[in-house]
Amino acid sequence: MDVGIDRLGFYTPKKYIDIVELAEARDVDPNKFTIGIGQSKQAVPDVYQDAVTMAAEAADKVLDDDNRNDIGLVIVGTESSVDESKATSAFLMDLLDLPEDVRAFEIKEACYGATAGLQMAYNFVAMNPDKKALVIASDIARYGIKTPGEVTQGAGAVSMIVSQNPHILKLDNKSVYMSRNVGDFWRPTFSKTAFARGKYSNEIYVEFFTTLWKRFQEKYDMTAEDFDTMLFHIPYTKMGMKALRTLDGQIPAAHYDKLVEHYQKSIEFSRNVGNLYTGSLYLGLISYLVNGNVQPDEKLMLFSYGSGAVGEIYSAEVVAGFDKYLDSEFIKEELNNRQKISVPDYETIFSEELENAGITKLEDVHDKFYLSEIKESERLYKKVN
Ligand code: COA
After folding, report:
1. Where is the Hydroxymethylglutaryl-coenzyme A synthase C-terminal domain positioned along the sequence (predicted)?
2. Are 158 and 10 in contact (CB under 8 A)?
């Protein structure tokens, strides 16, 4: 029985800043941000948005009356959750009209959370073929104004329905993983912004990739030429390239060039949205499926990395006819129809938040799901009808 991703959805906030304008405001050569880091635009979430509302937006795009009642497992991977106790998934139960007979919970391991969720979903569906799983990655990447990480911020969510006989991607149960206690990136519970040893995290990321890639090849007797495409966790678009570059000179040049060409297609959306943390790898998958010249039955390698740190390489196969199940034009249209805001306006939004006893005015809401109120420190959410 084939198990894998049957539907894929993506949401990013409707506001963004231009990275050249950010560079100018920070007195930095724009080429550093656009070429050295590899970003063009950065999503800016509104004050009424958070990991819950974005998860709801993304999941709403893949749920329908045919699949909703088949869902038996809901997992949200996030490192920007709003509550230390209540899982993001609990808020989604009524926002998305999910059936009550599901296991719904949240997973945290930095940018690796969604991959953990996806692998659990794979096992769940393999054991319960008549059921489906909903896996969501939702995050706001916040480093802080005028920090080195600011250029690598972003926000958004990716949703996946995992089922038997999937229409988009078959997972083939080939996987290697590793975990180690590493101080490359962390966000203590008191802090709304992350702390990062940026250059160290680059080194660990590349080291995890090379270690896992060697193990993957040994375990499955495969090489880079067995894969048409390699997808990477993309906190900023230059980062995956640092890992891919380790293959330059190690594999036939024509195949390396093909992998680079496909990588360029996989980063188009991230370049215009920024870091989705745990959704980044899956935004890369969507970007490749939408923008690449994808062949039926194409073999993909996916490298997932979460600081702290966990890494995993697994493989998958594109299902012929996947394009009928992915609304590429709608995704592109949503990205093109966003509103550019100025750097000072972004700085204002960045420092604003709904206070306890605060209520969001409906006329300020430009999305379907929103944080409507904070009452006795409890966050309450609503859907615009
Ligand atoms: N034109 C073109 N490229 C330029 C440039 C210019 N004018 N000026 C600098 N660059 C290049 C540098 O050569 C460097 O390239 P390299 O990484 O290939 O060596 C790149 O731009 C970044 O420059 P650097 O001086 O290293 O930037 P920085 O000290 O501001 O730090 C990060 C960059 C990514 C480390 C920082 O943004 C950060 O900490 N980000 C968050 C960490 C993160 O995302 N971690 C991932 C967790 S998985």
Report:
1. 259-350
2. yes
**pLDDT average, residue stretch 44-71:** 98
Whether 141 contacts 273, CB under 8 Å: no
CA dihedral 316, 319, 324, 330 (to 10 degrees): 10
Q: From ligand 1's centre to the CA of 195, what distance in Å?
A: 16
Q: Which amino acid is at 37?
A: I
Tell me the CA–centroid distance for residue 222 and ligand 1, in Å: 33
Buried b (16+ CB within 10 A) or exposed e, 313-337: bbbbbbbeebbebbbeeebeeebee
pLDDT digits (tens, 9 = 90+) for 278-334: 999 999 999 999 999 999 899 999 999 999 999 999 999 999 999 999 999 999 999
**Encoding tokens for residue 227?**
């894969």
Other CB atoms within a 10 A radius of the CB of residue 233 amount to 31
Q: Which of 26, 28, 31, 32 to mutate to test the pocket of ligand 1 (most atoms within 8 A of CB)?
A: 32
| pTM strictly above 0.70 | yes
Q: Where are the alpha helices (DSSP H) in 272-361?
A: 280-291, 328-336, 343-351
The CATH H-level (homologous superfamily) assignment of domain 3-383 is Thiolase/Chalcone synthase (3.40.47.10)
- Look up residue 82 and give its two tokens: 């709003």
Ligand 1 interacting residues, C-beta cut-off 6 A:
29, 31-32, 35-37, 111, 148-149, 151-152, 185, 196, 198-199, 201, 205, 235-236, 238, 305, 307
- The pairing of beta strand 41-44 with beta strand 299-306: unpaired
Q: What is the DSSP letter of 359?
A: B
pLDDT at 385: 83
H or E stretch at 268? helix 268-271
